[in-house]
Design a protein that fits this description.
By secondary structure, this protein is mostly beta strands. The two termini are about 40 Å apart.
């Protein structure tokens, strides 16, 4: 009955999710007027007549009395945090126009756009000096955030602070003799002063998150934003404190309960100032009196595309070529390639037919050859957990190498055959382990790496190398992938990048890979395959050389170090180092969709069809093949084929999971987990492109059971990344090839991530719509202006350090609601990962005691979740208050 129940849900899900009829391509223009802004900053002109406002990533100006705001920058710059020149002729700001945060400026009428800083580093939070000669800003140019100064006339840069802690949000005093800034020195945030000829000194230690110090005109006070205990306030402190570290609190300008945005306030006089809060422009005073708000409105035009949507084929029955080839590994002799496809391990004799090594519903992957080619190590969950196994290639005998080590992934065999290094994964926790094949002991090497790439060994076995994430600063999490050289003999770790500010691979199966003779490392960067000469210690000895003109993945060397096998969109390739000749390696492997046949009738006591809020009672659901053909009142004469008696049950459509990143962490049971909760369709907004294909082909071929999946490949990101399933893109050529891959590998949609520039997003949207698929993003505007289809998360990572969709207190204002409502752009809220899950677990303790949790999840993981759920129970009111604004946003968008 459980099996039939799943079939019922899958069939109904397919019926209700059938693609809508294709629409002709049309372009619609929709005007949206906003009168509130989420996390907007402002600045007051020196003459006190005009406000500059950053709203929807553009700079607008409006009279201080309020009214219609006029945009002076376009939608592609993501321009933020304006500051006026002292003569009022120009407005400087931080902009992401070129894919990195830099300081730009424009005249007050919107002409003469000028870029002031350049390069691969982020420059943020500019503030213009009162003599007009300089702009100070924060930058990660030195490895963390420090205060820098720009000479406006000639562009010369000077570093003003140099501390291991982050210094940011600088502001000139009225006489330009001092600069106030926020610092994390000493492990606590505070306001610091940098005075001419002196070392920085602490002005006041202030608890919580701090932002936007702003000097009063007389230089006596500083206003700054503080966020602590779920309150956001505008605080005043003395700027002339005697003893360092005193609180020096004068008053709160803002009122209790206000949602103050984390930017500089604009002083009107020694006693009054403008600030932004609750989506509005507010006027406050040092005495705490509340002034009149400045009403404004601004209008943007959205261009929406009604394009012909690609349809998923649920009916095709003929054989199709296998595209889901995972982890190809060439044998040391160079004559065979091991890989995973359709849930099993395969061996491809080069020039021959693929041969299946395993044939079961379990997950087998991560093949790695022993140095002599006699054995193949791999990961399998055939005994319930993902552990390390090995196969004797001559006898076919397989044995398990690890006992009780869970979440094993990406093994790599040492050159002498005595050790295997592998990763262990549980959630976002990653460990690096080493198995001694002689003793069977497992040693923990590292637990502080964030999803490193596959390990590769030096020929003498003394060093391992892998791609790891290197952050540009501790203030933000994004960085680049570098090569880590890790000694197994106690020497210090070393890192390098073959080309500065260019990521090495995707921390997956794409390098670095040491050649067996130790003379070279192969790796993927900018999407292409490269090789770089290295010494015996792994240090580079020369410049890299490009070996492919197409996107490369799955890199492995032959034992003679003369050829490299790699994966492309349409199969496998072999490149010869001498001369660079590339050969295609045919993989003649097909799969056939497993379709139900015959006639099935489900007698339902009640049916919820998802179309109305009413149940239908005592009905028959008639299914022929893979389609529901009719739902009719119960008739016994219909029951002439296979019948499922659900007369005492309620039948409903399968549920849809709309945001989940899939992987191999739960092995074969992952599909059964989803189905056990009634989920028959899921949407994966970022994954390895070949894993997508393998999962889809394995499920649709009937090798494994699981829900249908709508998925994309790696996220399209900018020059910096965080997750290993994001692709760093720094060139138009790489972007075009990645778009081509999305089409060739049949993505269901594309997702752009937080460091992708707005111009890149527009290019992605144009391409995706031309091939009939939608685009998802963390971004709302301007993606919504040129056709973006989906936005992920109400609250999610942002390249700005704050979100333009939601405030720190979880409020979204009228600009967000109006853009979503007018455009029809869908929002995937993901409130569960923002505390909603733990709120549910604390309210209903049976959630984690459910048999499905107890059956499918590791006991230690269940205990960890149970303990955290109990701890959350004491904070139910706090959690509820935190989540209520998020629920309100969903409700308002739906309304």
């Amino acid at each position: 009955m459980r099996y039939h129940k799943l079939i019922i849900q899958i069939a109904l899900g397919a019926f209700l999710l059938a693609p809508a009829p294709a629409r002709s391509q049309e372009i619609r223009h929709v005007d949206v007027t906003v009168h509130e802004g989420t996390n907007m900053a402002l600045a007051l002109s020196p003459d006190g007549r005009t406000l500059a406002l950053d709203l929807l990533g553009r700079i607008w100006t409006l009279p201080v009395a309020g009214g219609e705001a006029q945009p002076i920058t376009d939608e592609f710059g993501d321009t933020r945090q304006p500051t006026w020149s002292p003569d009022g002729s120009r407005i400087a700001f931080q902009s992401y126009r070129d894919g990195t945060w830099h300081v730009w400026s424009v005249t007050a009428d919107g002409s003469e756009l000028v870029q002031h800083t350049f390069g691969p580093y982020d420059d943020r939070e500019p503030h213009w000096s009162h003599d007009g000669s300089s702009i100070v800003f924060s930058s990660d140019r030195s490895g963390n955030y420090d205060i820098w100064q720009l000479a406006v006339e000639n562009g010369e840069l000077q570093q003003l602070t140099a501390n291991e802690a982050n210094d940011y949000a600088p502001a000139f005093s009225p006489d330009d003799a001092s600069i106030a800034f926020i610092s994390e020195r000493g492990g606590t945030r505070g306001v610091w002063l940098l005075e001419r000829g002196s070392e920085p000194r602490l002005l006041a230690a202030v608890p919580g998150r701090l932002a936007g110090p702003a000097w009063s005109p007389d230089g006596e006070k500083l206003a700054l934003n503080t966020i602590q205990s779920r309150e956001s306030r505008l605080l005043l402190i003395e700027a002339t404190a005697g003893s360092a570290g005193e609180q020096n609190e004068l008053a709160h300008v803002s009122q209790p309960g206000e949602d103050v945005f984390p930017f500089r306030a604009a002083w009107i006089s020694a006693t009054e100032l403008f600030y932004t809060a609750d989506g509005r422009i507010k006027r406050g005073s040092t005495s705490g009196e509340v002034g009149e708000e400045v009403e404004f409105e601004g209008t943007v035009t959205l261009t929406r595309h009604d394009y012909d949507r690609k349809k998923r084929d649920f009916d095709g029955s003929g054989p199709e070529p296998v595209r889901g080839i995972l982890g190809p590994a060439v044998s040391p002799a160079g004559d065979r390639i091991a890989f995973t496809a359709l849930g099993d391990l395969w061996i491809l004799p080069i020039g021959g037919e693929p041969q299946r090594l395993t044939d079961d519903p379990y997950t087998d992957f991560g093949a790695t050859w022993s140095p002599d080619g006699s054995e193949l190590a791999f990961v399998s969950d055939r005994e319930g957990m993902l552990e390390l196994w090995v196969r004797d290639m001559e006898s076919g005998v397989e044995r398990k190498l690890t006992q009780g080590v869970t979440g094993v992934s990406v093994p790599s065999w040492s050159p002498d055959g005595s050790r295997i290094v592998f990763r262990t994964e549980q959630g976002l926790s990653t460990g690096l382990q080493m198995l001694d094949l002689t003793t069977g002991e497992v040693e923990s090497l590292r637990s502080d790496l964030f999803f490193p790439g596959r390990v590769t060994w030096s020929p003498d076995g003394s060093t391992i190398a892998m791609a790891v994430l290197h952050k540009y600063s501790t203030r933000y999490r994004e960085g680049q992938n570098e090569i880590l050289l890790m000694s197994l003999e106690g020497e210090p770790d070393r890192t390098f990048t073959p080309v500065p500010h260019r990521s090495v691979g995707g921390r997956a199966m794409d390098g670095p890979v040491w050649s067996p003779d130790g003379h070279n490392m192969a790796y993927v960067s900018d999407g292409f395959l490269w090789v770089i000469p290295v010494g015996t210690d792994g240090e580079p000895l020369g410049p890299p050389r490009r070996l492919s003109n197409e996107l490369a993945d799955g890199v492995s060397w032959t034992g003679d170090s003369e050829t490299i096998v790699y994966q492309t969109n349409d199969g496998l390739r072999r490149v010869f180092l001498s001369g660079g000749r590339v050969e295609k390696i045919p993989v003649e492997l097909t799969w056939t969709r497993k379709q139900p046949t015959g006639r099935l009738v489900v007698h339902a006591g009640a049916l919820f069809d998802g179309k109305t809020d009413r149940l239908q009672h005592n009905v028959d659901i008639v299914i022929e093949g893979n389609r529901i053909v009719e739902v009719v009142p119960h008739r016994s004469d219909l029951h002439d084929g296979e019948v499922i008696d659900a007369s005492n049950q309620t039948v409903m459509p399968g549920l849809i999971e709309s945001h989940s990143h899939q992987g191999f962490g739960f092995g074969e049971s992952l599909g059964r987990i989803w189905l056990s909760y009634g989920i028959t369709m899921l949407r994966d907004p970022a994954s390895d492109p070949f894993k997508i294909r393998e999962r889809r082909e394995a499920v649709e071929a009937g090798v494994r059971i699981g829900p249908r999946e709508l998925a994309t490949g790696r996220m399209f990101d900018g020059d910096r990344i965080y997750y290993s399933f994001a692709t760093p893109m720094t060139s138009g050529a790489h972007l075009d090839l990645a778009l081509e891959r999305a089409d060739q590998l049949d993505y269901d949609f594309i997702k752009t991530y937080v460091r992708a520039s707005d111009l890149m997003q527009r290019r992605v949207i144009e391409f995706a719509h031309s091939v009939g698929i939608p685009v998802a993003s963390h971004e709302l505007y301007p993606a919504v202006a040129y056709g973006g289809d989906h936005v992920e998360h109400i609250s999610g990572t942002s390249r700005r350090g704050y979100s333009p969709k939601v405030s720190y207190l979880n409020h979204s204002y009228q600009d967000v609601i109006a853009l979503l409502g007018a455009s029809g752009m869908t929002l995937c809220p993901t409130i569960g990962i923002m505390g909603g899950f733990w709120y549910s677990a604390a309210r209903d303790t049976t959630l984690l005691a459910d048999p499905r949790v107890q059956t499918f999840f590791d006991p230690s993981y269940v205990q960890m979740m149970t303990d955290r759920g109990r701890r959350s129970g004491g904070n139910l009111d706090v959690l509820a208050a935190r989540l209520e604004p998020l629920g309100s946003t969903v409700r308002r968008v739906v309304d």
